[in-house]
């Protein structure tokens, strides 16, 4: 019995030590994620404002595209993106550390010169690369590396977007839909909250939108909300298919990546001259216009889809999440008159449903909705988020996403 007691004590000490190392690594990732994510968010804000003040920068987009391709060739990270981050979270691949500077610089170039892209997709890649760095430091095995990847994605998403709980849930949910890595839940939360505190401390700006009015949670508003969610979810399905099809079309038409991205940049310039600058960059100011002024162009969601599909398919970097919020908000707002609900509320439902539809992450979508729009419409936001799993199907933005 004494031998067994000693063995149990030894095993307990070993597990405690492993937990301590994992928690320390999670905190370290939160610190790194907060610093890198905060700097990234501030950089995107700075260059976006710079582009708004200097409209001529759009004409440099093709040149910026050539620089982007060159950066990825020099860092040997060609073809590596958010799908690799998901594979790392699944424990099936490793993310090269050089992806950190590649996606950081290339995303800044895209936003500076007017490509239609977001920043949260880039955040997932930054988080995965940061996790690889920490994994090397502590010599983590594949199981621990998977947990740290989730922590890294959670930290960077939180730092960039300012929704610490939603970021944690999203990082847990996105790699394998319908299954959480239980061992990663607490470390991911620690990383996310730490990163949020650090990014806020260094002045990263985070968006919040308050609907002017949220309907009562009664049968008619609920049915109208579900109808809006259904329409938006179908649009999300179409958007995902266009994104995948656009990448294949550009790749098959323009074999050379330098030519491909140059042509794509020229196409975005042409579209900007025709339709204006509302669809360049992430476009959060258009969402703000809905919530603050109650105005939206009915064609805005279609044009943002067009700008984004061309930008990303051509090879520009940045991600699709912020454009997804734009599309969902403008489509939802456009539907407000049809359903007789407040425009800002419909925009919030549209953002919630479109994000859930393109990521297949209904739980994260519901949590992020509460963090962005307040808890007043929790039941309605959750209903819209969960409805996306019915109406949008299994298609998503990510090829390597799995379903449990």
Average pLDDT figure:
92
Rg, rounded, reads 21 Å
Fraction of residues in β-strands: under 5%
CATH-wise, what's the superfamily of the largest domain? Clc chloride channel
CATH class of the largest domain: Mainly Alpha
The H-and-E topology, N to C, reads as HHHHHHHEHHHHHHHHHE
Chart the SSEs and their pairings.
Blueprint: H1 2-53, H2 61-74, H3 82-89, H4 99-113, H5 120-138, H6 142-161, H7 164-174, E1 176-177, H8 185-201, H9 219-253, H10 257-275, H11 284-293, H12 300-314, H13 321-339, H14 343-359, H15 362-373, H16 378-391, E2 402-403
Parallel strand pairs: 1-2
Helix pairs in contact: 1-4, 1-5, 1-6, 1-8, 2-4, 2-10, 3-5, 4-5, 5-6, 6-7, 6-8, 7-8, 7-15, 9-12, 9-13, 9-14, 9-16, 10-12, 11-13, 12-13, 13-14, 14-15, 14-16, 15-16
Keywords:
Clc chloride channel, mainly alpha, 2 domains, 2 strands
Description:
The N and C termini lie far apart (42 Å). The chain has two domains: 2-201, Clc chloride channel, CATH 1.10.3080; 219-403, Clc chloride channel (Orthogonal Bundle). It is mainly α and 404 residues long. The mean pLDDT is 92. It has helices at residues 2-53, 61-74, 82-89, 99-113, 120-138, 142-161, 164-174, 185-201, 219-253, 257-275, 284-293, 300-314, 321-339, 343-359, 362-373, 378-391; strands at residues 176-177, 402-403. The longest helix has 52 residues, at 2-53. It has a two-stranded parallel sheet.
